[in-house]
Amino acid sequence: MRNWTTRAETSADIPAIRDIVLAAFDTPLEADLVDALRADPSWIEGLSLVSTGEDGRPVGYALLTRCHIGDTPALCLAPCAVRPEEQNGGAGSAAVRAALAAARDMGEHYVVVLGHPTYYPRFGFTRACAHGIGLTIDVPDEALMALALDAEHPLPGGIVRYAAPFGI
Predict the structure, then answer these.
(1) What do you get for the CA distance between the two ends of the chain, in Å?
(2) Contact criterion met (CB below 8 Å) for 82 and 59
């Protein structure tokens, strides 16, 4: 595992972030989603994080935007991406950990993710259904996960409402 530097994105990082997301996914849908979210009211400054190598070039990315669990404000972790040549080296985990820490520091309490059930539990995510959290679309039960960022605020139940650009 290499040591990664993490930081909030700057405007200069936007092209590099798009390149990372385009390289990490089979279609441009996720990269287009990031662009749409950046222009949406769900965007929260400081919760779009990059991980960089020693040369300062962004190679990993994690984004948190506003969503709701029922009527309770929460955050959605998506997308997360790493340049293919840097995958499995910790750049993605570093970006996710930095994003979760930034959210906690901003006083946020809850995060949901729709993703790989073998990847996200390392950050403390558990099956959302165990907390009464669901979606309006059918997804594999184990793919929707949730995390309470502090013990004083247990996860609320309810249907997750994503920002409009997600189309869910």
Answers:
(1) 36
(2) yes
